[in-house]
Amino acid sequence: MAVTIATLPVEQFLPEAGRDVRLQREPFRLGYAPHLDGLRGLAILLVMVYHANHSLFSGGFIGVDIFFVLSGFLITSLLVQEYDGAGTIRLKAFYLRRVLRLFPALLAMLIAFSTFSIAVWGFEGARSRLVDSLIALFYMANWARAFWIHPPYELGHTWSLSIEEQFYALWPPLLLLLLRKAPTRLAIALIALGLAIASWMVRFQMTLVSERPMRMFNGLDTRADAVMMGCLLGVIVASGLVPRRAGGKLSRVLYFGGIASLSALLGIALVAQWHAEIMFQWLYFGVAVMAAVLILDCVTNPASIVKVILSFKPLVWIGVISYGLYLWHYPIYTLMYEAGYEWQQVMTVGTLTAFAIAIASFFLLERPFLKLKRRWEVRPRA
Questions:
Q1: Which pTM value belongs to this model?
Q2: Residue pLDDT, tens place only, 115-158
C-alpha cells in the first residue's frame, strides 16, 4: 500500500450557493506508489544485513523505525481518506483488513517454526520455543523482551510486529474521535506531534535514571514516536495542510531535505549502535523525523530525486515482498548461527532461502488474502 495523489474537481458540480468551504480543498486519494515500496525495500535490506552481520551495518536496525513511520503515514492517510469520503471510519472493516493482510503469513511462519522445533528437539526440547510462538501469535513479544519475561529468541524480531498491532488497536479509534470532535485538522496534527514528543521525552527521561536499554527499545510507550511521526505526516498530507504538489521554494527545500535525510539515514545505518545513549536520547527521534521528510518529499514533490532512486525496480520488488522477508529471515539466520554456520553462509544461503520462502508466501498466501481484503475496502460516498 502506497501513495499517489489524484484530484477530483468536486466544486464545479455544485451550485454556487451550495458549495461548502470544506470542499474547497482537493480530495485526497491513496493509490499505488512504487517509490514507497522502494523505501520498504531499502528498510528491509538494512534490517537483513544487520541481522546477518552486525559489523557490516551496525545501525541497520533503523530500518524498523523507517517501517514504523511509513506504517503510521499509510494507515492514517487511509483512515482520513475514508472519513472524508464515507463520513466515518468503519473500525470493524479496518481491523478485518489488517487481519487478512498480516495474520495468515505470520501464522504460517509460526506453524512452520513450531513444527521444525518439535521435529528437531522433540516436544519437551521445543517447549520454550512453542511458548515463544504463542507470545508472538498474541503480539506480546515487545513486552516480553522489555521486561525480560520469557523473551523470544529465534522469534525476537516479532517485537516490532507487536508494536504495530498495539498501535492498530489504539490509534484508529482515537483518530475517529479526533476527526469527529477536534475543531480543525491542524489540532489533530498537533495532538499527533504531541504524542510523538511525549514518547520521545519518556524515553529520554528513562536514560537519565539508567533504565535498561531493552526496556526502552521494546516498549510501545518508548517507541511510539516513530509511528506517531508517520501519523502526523498522514494527517497533514491527507487533510491538505501541505500542498499536494510542492512547487517553488517548498519543492527546493524538500528536494535537498530528501537527499540530506536519505544520506543521514544511510550514515546512521553504517555506524550507530542500538543501545547507545545518544540513540535513545536523540537519534531514534531524529531518524523518525528524517524518514518523515523522506516520505513527504516522495509524495508531494514532483522534482524529488529521492523518489527516482527509490523507484529502482529491484528495490521496489523487494519492498513488495518485504513482509515475508521480515517474517522469515530472522528465524532462518538465528537457526543457522545456532547450527554453527559462518556469517558469509548465513548472508548467502540464509538470504536466498528467505527470499525463496517470501516469494512463495507472497504469491501463494498473501496475495490471495489481499484480494479478499479488497472486498472490505470502503468506497467514498456520492
A1: 0.92
A2: 999 999 999 999 999 999 999 999 999 999 999 999 999 999 99
The letter for the amino acid at 170 is L
pLDDT tens digit sequence for 42-58: 999 999 999 999 999 99
- Burial class for 373, CB neighbours closer than 10 Å (0-12, 13-18, 19+): middle
Contacts of 252 (CB under 8 A, 6+ apart): none
Distance CA 265, CA 66 (A): 9
* pLDDT, tens digit, 9 for 90 and up, residues 65-106: 999 999 999 999 999 999 999 999 999 999 999 999 999 999
Structural contact between residues 26 and 240, judged by C-beta atoms closer than 8 angstroms: yes
Task: Please state, in angstroms and as integers, the Cα–Cα distance from residue 204 to each residue in 191, 199, 283, following that order.
Answer: 20, 9, 11
Buried b (16+ CB within 10 A) or exposed e, 283-317: bbbbbbbbbbbbbbbbbbbeebebbebbbeeebbe
Contact 158, 180 (CB under 8 A): no
Here the cell at position 163 is 508494536
Long-range contacts of 45-54 (CB under 8 A, 24+ apart): 45/318, 46/269, 47/326, 47/329, 48/325, 48/329, 48/351, 48/354, 49/347, 50/269, 51/157, 51/329, 51/330, 51/333, 52/333, 52/343, 52/346, 52/347, 52/350, 52/351, 53/343, 53/346, 53/347
